Amino acid sequence: MIDGLRGLAAVAVLFYHYMHFAMIGTDHERYFQYLDYQPARAMFGLLYDWGFYAVQLFWMISGFVFAAVYLDRPATTREFVVNRFARLYPLHFLTLLVVAGLQFIALQQVGHTLLYDNYDWWHFFLQLFFASDWLVGTGQSFNGPIWSVSVEVVVYALFWVLREPLRKFGAGGLIAVIALCLLGNLFSSVSRIPNCAFYFFVGTALFRLHEWLHLRNGAGRSLICAVLTLAGLAALREGSGLAREVVAIPALTGAALLMLAAVENAAPRGLRRASSWLGDCTYGIYLWHVPMQLALMLVILPHGNPAEFTAQGWVLAAWLGAVILAARLSFIWFERPLRERLRRHAEAGQI
After folding, report:
1. pLDDT at 321
2. What is the structure's pLDDT at 215?
């Protein structure tokens, strides 16, 4: 069920990035009334406007899942690194090469790159090693959405280093880490890593809360979820960015994670399979949608305006379906086989 939530968050990113079709060149501020080119805006306005907050949801889910998989289970550092590399790097490397090729075509065809600038060897090198967004100001480039993974891999390492202290100091240790991450957000103009770490370790704390509630009655879980939901809605009503990011997102996502974790095994089999299916597509949706946007824009640009073409409702539906299909095929034919092969080589001592 949580996998399904992650998949839906990836779809929300697709809606938010639909504005890319209305972008001129690489300047994110230069739109030509892009709101007028968003099909079915009355229905999907929330996703168009707020879909970028799906990234914080990804980070919280990662913290929850990592706590479930690694916090109290034996695993070596080598196993951890191999698992993360096999999960993340192959598709990242492939889509990086695809975007580099498409941007080269754009330079020849229209005289500039599309969506993102900084088309140079330095930014390629940074993306190659997941280092593109460790510091603010380096500028988005190539496959732009990888920025959130770039900062998250640093938090993975931090989680691994803190795993033993978190076991030892329990809830107090987690609260201290979350407080330090929140304090680190004062330096958000330097790096987004503390922001990612805040959401990640809130997710870790939620897993611990889930474990504690699992040993008690369901009424306690329902009460906590109700309190979190009310707190989140109150923070949204307050309206400030700080209330939204520090209270509303953690509280509302936390309530959803606790409830979904509680019904994970009791949910109908078909719903669990659908959630797993969509969850498997998440990484592919996230990394393939920009290359696919670039390819479509390169096809349309010689003949017309991409924004006008994609403003049609059937194009939105076809676009969503095409990206999800591409992500599914990527998972079946590329991500899963290569991941399993890398893990087998690691187990055999060949890596």
Report:
1. 97
2. 72
Residues of the chain with pLDDT under 70: 24-33, 217-218, 350-351
C-alpha span between 215 and 225 (Å, rounded): 16
Burial 249-286 (b: 16+ CB within 10 A, else e): bbbbbbbbbbbbbbeeeebeeeebebbeebbbbbbbbb
CB 21 within 8 A of CB 293: yes
pLDDT at 26: 60
Q: What is the pTM of this model?
A: 0.94
pLDDT digits (tens, 9 = 90+) for 37-90: 899 999 999 999 999 999 999 999 999 999 999 998 888 999 999 999 999 999
Distance CA 327, CA 307 (A): 24
Q: Residue 31 has what pLDDT?
A: 57
Closest by alpha carbon to 207, among 84, 66, 97? Answer: 66
pLDDT at 351: 65
23: phi then psi, degrees, rounded to nearest 5: -90, 145
* Res 73: pLDDT: 86
What secondary structure, in 3-state letters, does the chain show? Answer: CHHHHHHHHHHHHHHHHHHHHHECCCCCCCECCHHHHCCCHHHHHHHHHHHHHHHHHHHHHHHHHHHHHHHCCCCCHHHHHHHHHHHHHHHHHHHHHHHHHHHHHHHHHHCCCCCCCCCCHHHHHHHHCCCCCCCCCCCCCCCHHHHHHHHHHHHHHHHHHHHHHHHHHHHHHHHHHHHHHHHHHHHCCCCCHHHHHHHHHHHHHHHHHHHHHHCCCHHHHHHHHHHHHHHHHHHHHHCCHHHHHHHHHHHHHHHHHHHHHHHCCCCCHHHHHHHHHHHHCHHHHHHHHHHHHHHHHHHHCCCCCHHHHHCCHHHHHHHHHHHHHHHHHHHHHHHHHHHHHHHHHHHCCCC
Phi, psi of 304, rounded to the nearest 5 degrees: 180, -160
Instruction: Map out the domains of the chain as residue ranges.
Output: 2-347
Which single residue is written with the structure tokens 């930014």?
Answer: 123
Contact between 126 and 132 under an 8 Å Cβ cutoff? The reply is yes
| pLDDT the model gives residue 347 | 78
